[in-house]
Predict the 3D structure of the following.
Amino acid sequence: MNEKELSLKIRDYLNRSSLDYKFRFINSFCDLVDEKNRIYIEVKPDHFAHAQILHAIAQQGIKNAIYIGVADSTEAKLYSPISFDKILSFVKSFDPELVFSPSQADKPELNALAEKLLGKPKKTIKFDFTTSQYLYITKDNMQEIREITDKYRVHLDLLVNWLDGVGETASLKINSNGWLVNVDKADMFMNEPPQEKAKKELTEFHTSGFRRPKYTPIKPQDIMWFESLRVRHNDLADVLHEVDRLLTRSKRRAGGVFWTEAEIGDNLADEILKLTNPDYVVEPCVGGGSLIKKIVPKVRGTMNDISVPHVENCKRIYDGHNWKFTTLDIVRNNTEELIKAWEVPSEKPLLLYTNPPFGTASTNRLASKRNELMDGTVSRAQKITVPSALLKYGKGDLFLPIVGRLIEIAKVQKTCYLAFFSPFGLFCGRKRYVDLFNAVAKDFAFLKGYVFAGYNFHDINKTLPIALSVWKYSPNVHTKHTNLIFEFIDRNGKNKNLHFKEMPLLKDYWSYDKRDKGVLKNEITAPPSERFNSPSPKIIHLNPSQGGSEMIPENVKKRIGITNLPDELVYGLWGCAVGLGAFRTSLSNPLFPIYFRDAYIHMPDFTNKKTLEILAYVTLEVLLKNYAEDWIGFFGTNRVFRFGNERLTNGIKYLLDLCKDAPTYEGNTIGDAFKLIEQSKVDVTKLRKSLKDEVSKRLIAIGYWDYIPIPAAKDERQTGLKDN
């Protein structure tokens, strides 16, 4: 067994030995890495390469390792790392410039010294590899499996489902035509869904009289490999979940979608059960079932989904458990029908737990590509029909009537818990969600909240904040918005508690789109920036018809009265300071934390000097990328500065003079940068980077991200208004 084969075998063994291990084979500076737990292992078939792993740690500059490990074919030794300086000193004793390749450090004498330096291992893991003539498909070896199946155009999801139930018998054979056959069941693998397999088009029949499978015939060199393939039924959920990652969006939609990453469902299961202690669980939008995988063995329940393929997959995965499976439309079926069909026991604690599909009013079932057909119709042209009884929970997003139905079920069941995923915007005071939020807050007590970034979910923008909230039905409890606390979990597993606070919002101080009110005065225009996710470019321009408002007193709704700074100037500049695209940051890497994406932009404390410095940095950004060249810049031979009308220009001059000593790049200040721009001598690249960096520092310093801003209750939650 060579080093790669052994590494893959050890990787699979370690990952199966503990749910916490997430080892990957990288074949780079070392063989195995678990980034989550910061473990680095060098593998050799017949000896331990202590010096090589220390050389890799030094060369890569890894200073935060939890364990440094070595492994051979019998065991792995994990060491608590000594200080990085000691590792570096040891490695430089034989490779002063750190230029050796990894294998050059693998010397018996160096390994002996390195082992002595590391001391006794913190953990020793003995390998008990079971020998088998079969190659079992697991979520960990999926990439390697796919390298071969792709050669023959085999759809891995169809193959895995076909293999389920084959068992540990020599029943798989490749026949003389190169097709995979289960000889015990006289069943040939066709590489197509069951509904297609039932068709009998004559054009698809082979000259031998049977229907030709839809993959390339297996070549002799791969016959033994295909005949050895197996899948354990207990691994089916994890395997299908991993297969799902490799499928196209349209194929996932047709064959069963795992919307939630399995790790999220697994990690939350114990917490959800502890909070709710249910007697019965219903998952009304089950998809691939990954959300409740760990819940199924512990409690009875029902899995439901409008998609028949989804439910059929779940039946296969969870066969043998005492669960019911239904394919009901929970929006169109009434509450009593659902409770009866799901066989929910009366007066017993019920948990309604789901990750419903999200989408706009112009999508049905699942969001899709613009030109993709669904049931013969362009999917984006399909409309959602919401029963009148559920309209009180709002419209404009797929999850609203679904959660509304769950609320109606809770009212009938009485002893009921509700746990559901949703856009985090539901809790940020957004107008389109106000009706549903009011309904939940009125009759449900808040138990727990989490926020995840969209990269944990399929087909969702990775920067979209997704919330999971857990509630107990408590009629007329009137949960206060400001009492909610959500725990944000980032990509590295670090946690941060998010609190809510009623704050002054930019949209309440500043009017947008007044061009239809006869207010236009031919003045420079600030972009519309009501929310952090407002897509308009953060630029000042000259055409109000493209969105935004002219920076004129008539568009000021509330005054803040900063000396020498016109209100319209302050509001216009602040709208350019934060939100998507501010300082030309990318949509995937904005200046604001992910969990602020759906929130309204709030006003800072403008008496704080650091806040005014942010406005000054915005001014420099406007000058660097000038979309109002005839109105903003330096004019004439005397280089007279102008920023819109005289009132605005004087305000900018005051602002820049007030903040002239704030730093920019290479020891320059705002005052220096302003003069360099005037002389066309500024280093645009360096200045632009410094503007973004300095603004980021100040937003943190002024506590701008300390609370999630929400509107005052009288302005939003009691109005029932909707977003356009």
Summary: The longest strand covers residues 444-453. The CA atoms of residues 190 and 521 lie 70 Å apart.
